[in-house]
Automatic annotation (TrEMBL):
Annotated EF-hand domain residues: 49-84, 85-120, 127-162
Ranges in a coiled coil: none
One Gene Ontology cellular component: photoreceptor outer segment
GO molecular function, one term: calcium ion binding
Primary gene name: Guca1c
Protein name, entry field: GUC1C protein
Keyword vocabulary terms for this entry: Calcium, Lipoprotein, Metal-binding, Myristate, Repeat
């Protein structure tokens, strides 16, 4: 299952240099602000929901919470998205959904983040409401209307369809491709 997640390449050193030169070309100060992050990804002018989502992603990548993504945080993000084990990714998704940081996801949080993701990705087979109801129906074992990290991880790992849906819906590899290719620096 996870074997296809590693990148072909010639080891970490040339790859690191490659990322560093791209990062510095896009961001000469070495500190990527939220505004630059959106510009880099071509995501300016989103609706408020989309903006909220990008801000959440930015805040989670900004590990030391200084308002900037530096190169080390950038590499940590790339490693997680490209090489991360599935439970690491699920923890990351959980953190993304848990907007108020209380350690539980409620329906409102999941609904708002999924609505925001739809605003950016555009493609989906179901409405945000249907998605939210389905997730809670499948994995809220004690029916308390909230998902703990444990409920979330074990529920998603138990259900292949849900795992696929969540992985596809929240796939950030297109975000990273934009960064890797540096396609925005010509703008």
């Amino acid at each position: 299952m996870g074997a296809t997640e590693s990148l072909p390449g010639d080891g970490p050193v040339p790859e690191m240099h490659h990322y560093y030169s791209k990062f510095m070309r896009e961001c000469p100060s070495g500190q990527l602000s939220l505004h630059e992050f959106k510009k880099l990804l071509g995501l300016q002018g989103l609706d408020p929901q989309g903006d909220l989502y990008i801000k959440r992603v930015f805040d989670i990548f900004d590990l030391n919470q200084d308002g900037f993504i530096d190169f080390l945080e950038f590499i940590a993000a790339i490693n997680l998205v490209i090489r991360g084990k599935i439970d690491q990714k699920l923890k990351w998704y959980f953190k993304l959904y848990d907007a108020d940081g209380n350690g539980c996801i409620d329906k409102k949080e999941l609904l708002s983040i999924f609505t925001a993701i739809q605003a950016i990705n555009g493609h989906t087979d179901m409405s945000a409401e249907e998605f939210t109801d389905m997730v809670f129906q499948k994995i809220d074992v004690n029916n308390d209307g909230e998902l703990t990290l444990e409920e979330f991880i074990s529920g998603v790992e138990r259900d292949r369809n849900l795992m696929e849906l969540i992985t596809k819906s929240f796939d950030l590899s297109n975000v990273l491709k934009a960064i890797q290719n540096g396609r925005r620096h010509s703008i």
